[in-house]
Each structure stands twice: as C-alpha cells, then as structure tokens.
Amino acid sequence: MTDMLVKLYDLKNDWSFLAEQEKLGITIRKPIGPEKHLIVDWVKRKFLLDAWASETDMALSNRPITCFVAFKNKKLIGFACYDATALGFFGPTGVARSHRGKGTGKALLRACLLDMKLKGYGYSIIGSVGPADFYRKAVGAVEIPDSTPGIWEDWLHRI
After folding, report:
1. Which long-range contacts (CB under 8 A, 24 or more apart) does 32-35 make?
2. What would the mean pLDDT of 11-38 be, rounded to a whole number?
3. Nearest to 66 by CA among 55, 76, 77
4. Could you please report the per-residue DSSP string of 70-108?
5. Is 99:72 a contact under the CB 8 Å cutoff?
6. Radius of gyration of the chain (CA)
7. Which 8-state DSSP code applies to residue 15?
8. For 28-66, what is each residue's pLDDT tens digit?
9. Which residues contact 41 (CB under 8 A, 6 or more apart)?
10. Residue 110 vs residues 12, 79, 147: alpha-carbon distances, Å
11. CA distances from 136 to 20, 41, 111, 117, 158 (A)
12. What angle do CA 7, 9, 10 make, to 5 degrees?
C-alpha cells in the first residue's frame, strides 16, 4: 500500500465539522489520561490489529496527545492518531462499522490534520493507505511514488 501526502497549508482553518458531528449526537475531542487503556483496548478489539493498538498507545503517550476520539452516548465509536509511528505521519484511524457513513471518519481526519497544521507542520503523510479515494476527496491527498513498503519495511512483528 502506498503513502499519500497532504498539503496542510492548503487546508482552511475550519472546525465546523465538530458542530456537524454534534448535531448527530457525536462528540469529537482529545482524550484524557484515564481513558488511555479503554481506547487502546477498544482499538485492539474492534480492529484486531496489535500494531494499531501500539500506535494508538504511542499517540496517547505523546505530550500533547496526538489522538482524537469520537463518542456517541458516552461510547467510543472512532479514533484517529498522528505522530504515532513517525513524526508527520497520520494514522491509524478507524470508525466502528455501525457508525460509518456519517462523516465521522472525515471529521477525525480533519481534526488531526488541522491540529498538525496549528503545530506548524506543512505536510502530513498518510501512511500505507487503504482507501486512497477517500483521502483524495476528503483532503486532496496525493500518492507518493515508490513509497511502498515505506517506513514499515523493517518493522518487527510476529512471525
């Protein structure tokens, strides 16, 4: 899977997506410390990926936290991280299947990218992209040639 690049300086500083999600009863925010274990466990359980759980743990350990979460009725329904595997990288991210199609994934993406922009990043790399069309449409991401396997070429994982 290829990496994609987003020009953060082209993103408008428009956070109206938070209000749009609120109208659906969905709150998007940064988590606080006591929620860390709940979020990491949820990511591992919902997406069955130890690597995503580890990356989420890293994002929640950063100061300031580099993760946003989505809640509905006090239940976690989505998450998005950045600076989890490498500085300037967006991901991992996911929304529970039962809550997809409501713009929550795009809202979490935009929250992370705008947070990165406010920190002074000019670009964000979306690593090992699955749904390339989603990122193209949502934030104007473009594919980075010859970026497979990228940063993950030599990572340690179970055999």
Report:
1. 35/69
2. 97
3. 55
4. EEETTEEEEEEEESSSSTTEEEEEEE-GGGTTSSHHHHH
5. yes
6. 15
7. -
8. 999 999 999 999 999 999 998 899 999 999 999 999 999
9. 53
10. 10, 12, 23
11. 21, 30, 16, 18, 32
12. 70
**Nearest to residue 120, comparing CAs of 79, 91, 87, 150?**
87
Domains and CATH numbers, the chain: 4-152 (3.40.630.30)
Residue 40 near residue 53, CB atoms below 8 Å: yes
What length does the chain have? 159
Rounded CA separation 103/107 (Å): 6
Please give the torsion angle defined by the CA atoms of residues 30, 36, 40 and 46, in that order, rounded to the nearest 10 degrees.
-60
- Measure the CA–CA gap between 131 and 147, rounded to whole angstroms: 16
pLDDT of amino acid 156: 72
